[in-house]
Amino acid sequence: MHELSICRALLDQVEAVAAEYGVQRVASITVSVGPLSGVEPDLLQAAYPLASAGTLAEGAVLKILRSPLRVHCDQCGTETAATVNRLVCGACGNWRTILVSGDELLLTDVELMTKQRCL
Fold first, then answer.
1. 36 burial type by CB count under 10 A (0-12 exposed, 13-18 middle, 19+ buried)
2. Rounded to an integer, what distance in angstroms lies between the CA atom of residue 20 and that of residue 16?
3. 3, 4, 40, 93: most buried, per Cβ within 10 A?
4. In whole angstroms, how large is the CA radius of gyration of the chain?
């Protein structure tokens, strides 16, 4: 399950952000996961409590947003939704497309806690 090592890498980024702001607790972490990222969101969610134990993010909520799979058509110039097994243009059916989104794993938001309020 490589999702555990992915969680650790995300938590390293989160700890760097927390250190930058001098904060000792994290309230929530939001990541964006595309269907072609090679990451299974449910396994990432399951691995998170193990990876976050003993860190600044222990007890913080992990929010996972699923990114849409989108392609740009070289022929008609349209950007359309696609499916994992069919990366063709939704407008004209052309197979010469460029992946616009859907392969990413991004740390999009970190909510930090101070003694009085969240940042």
1. middle
2. 6
3. 3
4. 18
